[in-house]
Amino acid sequence: MKAQSLGSVRKSFAPWADPAAKPFIRFEGLTKVFDGTAAIDDLNADIFHREFFALLGASGSGKSTLLRLLAGFEVPTRGRIVLDGEDMTGIPPYRRPVNMMFQSYALFPHMSVAKNIAFGLKQDGMAKSEREDRVADALKLVKLENYGRRKPHQLSGGQQQRVALARSLVKRPKVLLLDEPLGALDKKLREETQFELTDLQYELGMTFIMVTHDQEEAMTMADRIAVMGDGKILQVGTPPEIYEAPRSRFVADFIGTVNIFDGTLVARDGDRLTIETADGHPIEVDGNEERGGALQIGAKTAYAVRPEKLRISASPLDGPNVMSGEVWEIAYIGDMTSFHLKLDSERIVRVSMLNSSRESAVQMTWGERAWVSFEPNAGLVLSA
Ligand SMILES: Nc1ncnc2c1ncn2[C@@H]1O[C@H](COP(=O)(O)OP(=O)(O)OP(=O)(O)O)[C@@H](O)[C@H]1O
Fold first, then answer.
1. What is the DSSP string of 156-224?
2. Whose CA is nearest to atom 4 of ligand 1?
3. pLDDT digits (tens, 9 = 90+) for 84-114
4. Which of 34, 55, 77, 179 gets mutated to test ligand 1 (max ligand atoms within 8 A of its CB)?
5. What is the pLDDT of residues 207-258, one digit of tens each?
6. Which of 100, 274, 340, 376 has its CA 20 to 30 A from that of 264?
7. H-type helices in the chain, by residue range?
8. Which residues fall within 8 angstroms of residue 332, CB to CB, at 6 or more apart?
């Protein structure tokens, strides 16, 4: 119920779409070179107040380095970070309005939960009574009111995660940095915690920046996702933008599953384009700005279409973009079934169907002949 009401409020949260909105955090030409190699490479991006922003990318793409630069644990080689109107250059970590929660939680095993949470406040010289109030508030926030006296080893993994969260929130930073915050939890707990964390972020009205290599997690939790590769941000967008309108082959391939047909533009008839794939399949495309409108005949290109945009049938299909082959894999995943079809050219085409609408696909068996098709407007034309 709560998620629904938050969902409708969140829909109207889109400061990035407002040209007058001022960014809360700005990365300007940010570069970090380690041993002659740029871990962050001339990176520019804006993050807004109250945004839940995810940095998503493969291992080594520079996600943690970007968080560490923001926290002040690393010094940029070039460029700068502006946070809430203040240039962070030369500002040490402890003076930044930023806190980081690590995947390892880094709790002190010999200290009680309450002492772990209070640790930073004590170091800052805060009076005991104020510290106690703050710790009580933080424990309440993460729903661990009665756990203050326990030691970390007396808690489950999920509870330890919440203690780490309480400890990173207790100083009331403006920005919370989360490095793979749910990485140590099992799948079910992870899914529950995802919603707890987004609800908490929303209630606190804080800016969260989360590093993850799990695209489902990024899609579930973030207002916007930055897909990173080789120290650069390749695309920033809302989850639907990143999934539905990837601007490059890399992003299309990295987010979810996609069929990519490499080929050449061989014909154009008004808005209708024909791409011939390298293995000889003609693909009819409704051309527009996203779908190859500007391409010249003879241009190398790639057509990307998601598995759920394909139909699969045990009998021949009519219309454009029909391919046939052998059913190579069938994976029943509960809500949906995923098929791999092996074409005569050896190419594997991936199809997924909701089980509520499986129609004839339910009859399909391994090794059988099957047909797939997709509409001319089902996918995107990407540069090869
Ligand atoms: N202190 C360092 N000294 C030298 N090289 C470093 C240092 N920190 C990071 N790098 C290099 O910078 C690149 C980016 O690393 P980073 O840890 O930011 O990537 P990541 O996307 O967070 O990866 P992962 O998901 O594995 O944590 C890597 O090639 C890494 O080896």
1. -HHHHHHHHHHHHHTT--SEEEEESTTTTS-HHHHHHHHHHHHHHHHHHT-EEEEEES-HHHHHHH-SE
2. 34
3. 999 999 999 989 999 999 877 789 999 999 9
4. 34
5. 999 999 899 999 999 999 999 999 999 999 999 999 999 999 899 999 999 9
6. 340
7. 2-11, 63-71, 113-123, 128-141, 157-169, 187-204, 215-221, 239-244, 249-254
8. 355
Angle between helix axes 2-11 and 187-204 (nearest 10 degrees) is 60
For β-strands 52-57 and 322-332, DSSP reports them as unpaired
3-state secondary structure of 55: strand
Which structure tokens are listed for 125? 């010289």
What tokens were used for 245? 């309108």
Instruction: Give me the interface pTM, i.e. the ipTM.
Output: 0.96
Core vs surface per residue 200-229: b (16+ CB within 10 A) or e:
bbbeeebbbbbbbbbbebbbbbbbbbbbbb
Express each pLDDT in 124-143 by its tens digit: 889 999 999 999 999 998 99
For the Cβ of 59 lying below 6 angstroms from any atom of ligand 1, the answer is yes
Q: How far is 237 from 16, CA to CA, in rounded Å?
A: 9
In CATH, 257-383 is 3.40.50.10860: no
Hunting for tokens 């993994």 — which residue is that? Answer: 157
**Domain edges within the chain:** 2-97+173-252, 257-383
CA of 50 to the centre of ligand 1 (A): 27
Q: Ligand 1 pocket test: which of 31, 35, 40, 63 has the largest number of ligand atoms within 8 Å of its C-beta? A: 63
Q: Give the homologous superfamily in CATH for domain 2-97+173-252.
A: P-loop containing nucleotide triphosphate hydrolases (3.40.50.300)
Q: Cα separation of 332 and 266, whole Å?
A: 38
The count of C-alpha atoms lying within 13 angstroms of the C-alpha of 265, restricted to the half-sphere facing its C-beta, is: 23
Measure Cα distances from 26 to 48, 49, 61 in Å: 9, 11, 19
d(CA 166, CA 155): 14
Closest Cα partner for 177 from 56, 71, 325? 71
